[in-house]
């Protein structure tokens, strides 16, 4: 009888635990593409009409997110997110299966601690102030790392307390698969024996969000390593940051306000690459200012202006972008976007963050226009 009572007690405890721990998995995604026109798409001045890769209004992706209630206000969480190009059906992020995000962690009142491939604080700090976000004619045209700030082998923490969000990340090796984590940054492999600093990356963020305004600042530092390179996307060839003592760092400050139905956001990103290579130290400053207004609940108009200056390269560019979005439903929208980029005499920035074959001759501007459709599921 004694053993019978013990067995019944254990069975009851297991049933109670099973009923207590609730879990869910959500499948989600976005498909976004369009038809784009870009003037002066090459040095000869030829134009191109195409379906762009990578992004239209937002990058296409599909993913799974899960949560399990562990009790005592503690949850287990995970995200697996894959990027792809609608134009050809191929995977993004260098062909990775889950190139956008792949992490597991614990979440509680104290915040979220996560492990895996995930965004650095550069991405989270800009989420509200950058009005156009990862748009094809957005900030990614002038610095492709900004909307793609991710790292492998990463421990990250993020917590929000009474409107204040603090966060940090640390990567033991920011690109373990060798597919080029940061666009144009070359390959910097995972942890390297004998050199604890090679390919490391860390970031930190402090952010405040109120009812009518918000401000944020973040710092992101990448260490150099084997095959790592620094690209300023201005037509000057990327240069090596091969030593673990080399650094590619970005400091930013931004903010936004909501006034009479209009959201206004802007900020600054200062970048410094310090290298032992012949190219030495290169600095850039990137400024942006944008606004968004919903004409009706179904029609949004937004636009943003950008200015980048790369001091040591003597290159500068100004980008102006205007977008209109019509929401056919909660899941489906059509949009039109037009932008123009002015290059300085030595610069070869491209108006389109859609990638591939749209680099003008030095000093030549570009016009970009796209009409597209976006569907969420």
UniProtKB/TrEMBL annotation:
Q: How does it sit in the membrane?
A: Multi-pass membrane protein
Give the range the annotation lists for the signal sequence.
Answer: 1-21
Q: Which UniProt keywords apply?
A: Cell outer membrane, Ion transport, Membrane, Porin, Signal, Transmembrane, Transmembrane beta strand, Transport
Q: Which organism is it from?
A: Caballeronia catudaia
Q: Does the keyword Signal apply?
A: yes
Q: Where is the Porin domain?
A: 10-344
Primary place of residence? membrane
Tell me how this protein assembles: Homotrimer.
| One GO CC term, this protein | pore complex
Enumerate the subcellular locations listed in this protein's record, separating them with semicolons. Answer: Cell outer membrane
GO MF, one annotated term: porin activity
Please indicate if the UniProt record lists Nuclease as a keyword. Answer: no
The protein's name is Porin
One biological-process term from Gene Ontology? monoatomic ion transport
């Amino acid at each position: 009888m004694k053993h019978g009572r013990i067995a019944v007690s254990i069975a009851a405890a297991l049933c109670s635990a099973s009923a207590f721990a609730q879990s869910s998995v959500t499948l989600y995604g976005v498909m976004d593409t369009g038809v784009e026109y870009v003037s002066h798409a090459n040095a000869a001045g030829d134009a191109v009409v195409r379906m762009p890769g990578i992004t239209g209004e937002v990058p296409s992706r599909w993913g799974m997110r899960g949560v399990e209630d562990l009790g005592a206000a503690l949850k287990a969480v995970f995200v697996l997110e894959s990027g792809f190009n609608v134009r050809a059906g191929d995977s993004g992020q260098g062909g990775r299966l889950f190139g956008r995000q792949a992490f597991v962690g614990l979440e509680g009142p104290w915040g979220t601690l996560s492990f895996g491939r995930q965004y650095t604080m550069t991405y989270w700090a800009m989420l509200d102030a950058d009005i156009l976000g990862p748009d094809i004619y957005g900030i990614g045209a002038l610095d492709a790392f900004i909307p793609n700030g991710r790292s492998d082998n990463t421990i990250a923490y993020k917590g929000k307390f009474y409107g204040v969000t603090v966060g940090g990340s640390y990567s033991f090796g920011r690109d373990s698969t060798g597919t080029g984590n940061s666009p144009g940054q070359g390959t910097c492999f995972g942890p390297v024996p004998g050199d604890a600093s090679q390919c490391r990356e860390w970031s930190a963020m402090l952010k405040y969000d109120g009812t009518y305004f918000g401000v944020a600042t973040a710092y992101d530092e990448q260490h150099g390593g084997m095959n790592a390179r620094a690209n300023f996307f201005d037509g000057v060839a990327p240069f090596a940051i091969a030593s673990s003592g080399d650094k590619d760092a970005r400091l930013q400050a931004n903010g936004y306000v909501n006034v009479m139905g209009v959201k206004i956001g802007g900020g600054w990103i200062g970048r410094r690459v310090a290298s032992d290579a012949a190219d030495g130290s290169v600095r850039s400053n990137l400024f942006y200012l944008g606004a968004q207004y919903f004409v009706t609940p179904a029609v949004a108009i937004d636009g943003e202006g950008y200015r980048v200056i790369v001091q040591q390269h003597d290159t500068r560019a100004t980008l102006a972008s205007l977008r209109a979005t019509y929401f056919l439903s909660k899941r489906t929208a059509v949009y039109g976007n037009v932008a123009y980029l002015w290059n300085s005499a030595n610069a070869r920035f491209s108006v389109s963050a859609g990638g591939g074959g749209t680099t003008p001759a030095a000093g030549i501007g570009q016009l970009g226009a796209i009409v597209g459709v976006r569907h969420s599921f």
